[in-house]
Specification:
Elements lengths: L8 H42 L4 H28 L4 H6 L4
Length: 96
C-alpha cells in the first residue's frame, strides 16, 4: 500500500511544471512593467519636446528621453546576459 502523502513521478513533474510556469509568468509581468515605464516616459518626453515653444524646454525633454533610452538599453543588455546559449544552441543558430 502506498503512503497517503507520496507523490508519483508524474504528479511531481506536473507540480514542478506549474511552479515553473507561474514563476515565468511573474517574471514576464515584472519585466514588462520595467520596460513599459521608460517607454511611456520616452513617449511623453518626445510629445512634450515636439510641442515645446522654447528650445530650453525642448532640450530638457529630449535629455529625459535620452536618459530613459539609456536605462532601457541597460535593462535589455542585462537581460541578454541572463541566458548563455549552450554549444548545441549556438550550433543550431543560422549565421547571418
Amino acid at each position: 500500500m502506498e503512503a497517503p502523502f507520496t507523490q508519483t513521478d508524474a504528479e511531481l513533474g506536473r507540480v514542478l511544471r506549474e511552479a515553473s510556469a507561474s514563476a515565468s509568468s511573474a517574471m514576464a509581468h515584472t519585466l514588462a512593467h520595467h520596460i513599459n515605464n521608460p517607454l511611456q516616459s520616452i513617449t511623453n518626453s518626445i510629445f512634450l519636446a515636439l510641442h515645446s515653444r522654447d528650445s530650453s524646454s525642448r532640450t530638457l525633454h529630449l535629455e529625459q528621453a535620452s536618459e530613459d533610452l539609456r536605462q532601457l538599453s541597460k535593462l535589455v543588455g542585462d537581460l541578454l546576459l541572463l541566458h548563455r546559449p549552450t554549444v548545441a544552441e549556438e550550433a543550431a543558430e543560422p549565421l547571418q
